[in-house]
Specification:
By secondary structure, the chain is of the alpha/beta class. 39% of the residues lie in helices and 19% in strands. Helix 1 runs antiparallel to helix 5, helix 6 packs antiparallel against helix 12 and helix 7 packs antiparallel against helix 9. The two termini are 53 Å apart.
Length: 428
């Protein structure tokens, strides 16, 4: 028989149990926080019809979609959680209450180039609030509040939410006579990667030197949030621009009202996000001091979520955490606690088979009391059994020998301090 060499495909993350416990802890913190803020869970199929996934056209995204090899050839793996959400809301519109607050934590699939830290299969953790016809701007501030609490629980409270507004940007470009903003936005979006000089040169190529200099001066500023907002209100009389400034001001004010310190918020006019998707608020989130890992959470407001699937107007706002990528990068930087953790607090070790039944009796008693307990009934030397407990990160070990059995006692050892005491069965 030929032995197939076990291996995983490139671009997927597979963890050992100890790492998986750490990852699951992060995922659980995210999920419980979403629930705390009354976001409802949904779980859409990993497989969607091509007509659903390709509804907004193709481009680079379509090239990355994994199609399923089948006779019908009309199905693919989802590449994000937003398109399935749009289909879900349109399909179940009559059964949902609006505003509809949902969270979804699940795997998505993309044909990413094989490179470090980029995955073909990865977890996303999304929250969205969908309105019917309208949606209060308050919701644009609520989402960062939720994200802020999550990262506080993960011991990363030193965050910066960089926020902007697409209406503001579009109004600004309109005042400069720039009609086709796609390439300009794309260039601004790359500013932190390519540097300010290359950004300027590219803007000159796309517009002219005067307009390029005006754009750079506009997006580059060191003003405080309140100073910048004050200047923006006086910057232009364009209706769309002022609408964007007003929304930005409201989002900023609500974020502070909801308990996000001003020091953790930065109005950044260079944040553009999604060239065609977002219509108003946009945000990126960075861990201070570790900006090189990129945004750990991003999102924004969209005017009409399900325009390809429904005639209903469904505005919404959403944010997404790339859990797999976040875990990998924090792990690489040594920023997450990977101390041995165990699901088991107490391990019962009978010295030989004749004591197994007594061990099981103790096991049942402790489980009834709500303890996280397991029993080791494999044969072998005592040293081997203790090594197993140590490698599993067990906190306490109950040792049972002939003497403990005869006296209806048990010996319990603290694996950290080495302290060992004997107790009566009745003390359990």
């Amino acid at each position: 028989m030929n032995i197939v060499k076990p291996s995983t495909i490139a671009g997927v993350m597979e963890l050992l149990p100890k790492e998986q416990l750490v990852f699951d802890n992060i995922k659980n913190i995210v999920e419980e926080t979403y629930k705390k803020y009354q976001f409802m869970p949904i779980d859409t199929p990993v497989i969607e019809k091509n007509e659903i996934l390709f509804a907004k056209g193709g481009g680079e995204t379509e090239k990355q979609i994994y199609e399923i090899a089948s006779d019908s050839k009309d199905m693919s793996l989802r590449f994000d959680l937003t398109v399935p959400l749009a289909r879900y809301v349109a399909e179940h519109f009559q059964d949902l209450n609006f505003p509809f607050k949902r969270y979804h934590i699940g795997k998505v699939y993309r044909g990413e180039r094989n490179q470090k830290g980029r995955y073909r299969e990865f977890y996303q953790a999304d929250i969205d609030i969908i309105g019917h016809n309208s949606l209060s701007i308050y919701n644009d501030a609520l989402l960062p509040r939720v994200i802020f609490e999550i990262f506080e629980k993960l011991n990363f409270s030193d965050l910066t939410f960089k926020i902007n507004n697409r209406k503001l940007l579009n109004g600004f470009f309109k005042s400069l006579g720039i009609e086709d903003t796609t390439d300009v936005l794309r260039t601004i979006d790359k500013k932190d990667k390519i540097g300010i000089e290359k950004t300027f040169d590219e803007l000159v190529r796309l517009t002219d030197e005067e307009k390029a200099r005006t754009i750079i001066e506009f997006i580059e500023n060191e003003d405080s949030n309140e100073e910048l907002l004050s200047k923006l209100f006086d910057f232009s009389t364009d209706e769309l621009f002022l609408e964007g400034v007003d929304e930005l001001n409201k989002v900023y004010t609500y974020m502070v009202d909801l308990g996000i310190p001003d020091r953790n918020i930065k109005i950044d006019l260079a944040i553009t996000r999604g060239l065609d998707y977002y219509t108003s608020t946009v945000y990126e989130t960075f861990i201070n001091g570790y900006e090189k890992i990129g945004s750990v959470c991003s999102g924004g407001r969209y005017e009409d979520l399900a325009s390809n699937f429904s005639k209903q107007k469904l505005p919404g706002v959403g944010m997404s955490i790339g859990l797999t990528r976040l875990f990998y990068q924090l792990q690489e930087l040594g920023l997450i606690d990977e101390k041995i953790k165990s699901l088991t607090d107490i391990l019962i070790i009978p010295m030989d088979e004749s004591i197994n039944e007594y061990g099981i009796e103790i096991l049942n008693k402790l489980r009834e009391a709500g303890e996280s307990v397991d029993i080791y009934l494999e044969s072998g030397k005592f040293k081997k059994k203790m090594n197993y407990a140590d490698k599993c990160g067990i906190k306490r070990v109950i040792i049972l020998g002939e003497e403990e059995l005869s006296k209806r006692e048990y010996s319990i050892k603290d694996m950290e301090t080495g302290e060992q005491v004997s107790k009566k069965f009745e003390e359990l």
